[in-house]
């Protein structure tokens, strides 16, 4: 029982460590990091659906903020189709999935965001998700290994080291 409480505490700390995307600064950074060809495309007049994407972004943000995960997910997925070069919707999907504990999906979404823009916050969140996946796999291995198996003791030591590192 104390081990489970410790693991829950680690999960909470890891989740709390997820970075969030800052709206104005990231759009400026994204524009600066684009290639000249990409900047030329974005300098072109906005298509007729531009106000539609702003509306969808706002609805997605509101749904996320109020915990309506399925609605937010739908809006963010729609944004990934409307703005295929934009890392923002993928980043937000990663946050949404991580918050729900859908760690494999979060990892995929963060990787998609990184394909579109190399960003330290996205890399940070990807690392936290991977730590949570690793802790989960080690915990499950420890529970499933026979008590006399040397790998069980080694797994226990790895988990203990992670707990100690998180406490510092």
What's the SSE blueprint?
Blueprint: H1 2-16, H2 23-33, H3 36-43, H4 50-65, H5 69-82, H6 88-100, H7 103-116, H8 120-144, H9 150-167
Helix pairs in contact: 1-8, 4-5, 5-6, 6-7, 6-8, 7-8, 8-9
Structural category? mainly alpha
What's the CATH architecture? Alpha Horseshoe
Q: What is the average per-residue confidence, as pLDDT, rounded to a whole number?
A: 80
Instruction: Tally the helices.
Output: 9
CATH topology: Serine Threonine Protein Phosphatase 5, Tetratricopeptide repeat
- Our measurement of the CA-to-CA distance between the termini, rounded to an integer number of angstroms, reads 22 Å
The SSE string, one letter per element, is HHHHHHHHH
| Percent of sequence in beta strands | under 5%
Describe the protein's architecture and organization.
- The protein is an all-alpha fold and 168 residues long.
- It has one domain (50-167): Alpha Horseshoe (Serine Threonine Protein Phosphatase 5, Tetratricopeptide repeat), CATH 1.25.40.10.
- 80% of the residues lie in helices and 0% in strands.
- It has nine helices and no strands.
- The protein has helices at residues 2-16, 23-33, 36-43, 50-65, 69-82, 88-100, 103-116, 120-144, 150-167.
- Helix 5 packs antiparallel against helix 6 (88-100) and helix 6 runs parallel beside helix 8 (120-144).
- The longest helix is centred in the C-terminal third of the chain and has 25 residues, at 120-144.
- The chain is elongated and about 60 Å long.
- It starts with a helix and ends with a helix.
């Amino acid at each position: 029982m104390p081990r489970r409480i410790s693991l829950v505490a680690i999960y909470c700390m890891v989740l709390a460590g997820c970075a969030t995307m800052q709206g104005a600064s990231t759009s400026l950074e994204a524009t600066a990091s684009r290639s000249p060809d990409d900047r030329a495309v974005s300098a072109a007049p906005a298509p007729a659906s531009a106000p539609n994407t702003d509306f969808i972004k706002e609805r997605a943000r509101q749904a996320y903020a109020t915990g309506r995960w399925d609605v937010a997910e739908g809006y963010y997925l729609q944004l990934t189709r409307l703005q295929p070069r934009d890392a923002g919707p993928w980043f937000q999907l990663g946050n949404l999935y991580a918050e729900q504990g859908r760690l494999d999906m979060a990892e995929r979404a963060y990787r998609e965001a990184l394909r579109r823009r190399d960003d330290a916050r996205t890399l940070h969140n990807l690392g936290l998700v991977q730590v949570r996946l690793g802790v989960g796999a080690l915990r499950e291995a420890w529970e499933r290994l026979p008590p006399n198996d040397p790998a069980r003791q080694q797994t226990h030591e790895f988990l203990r080291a992670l707990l100690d590192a998180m406490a510092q």
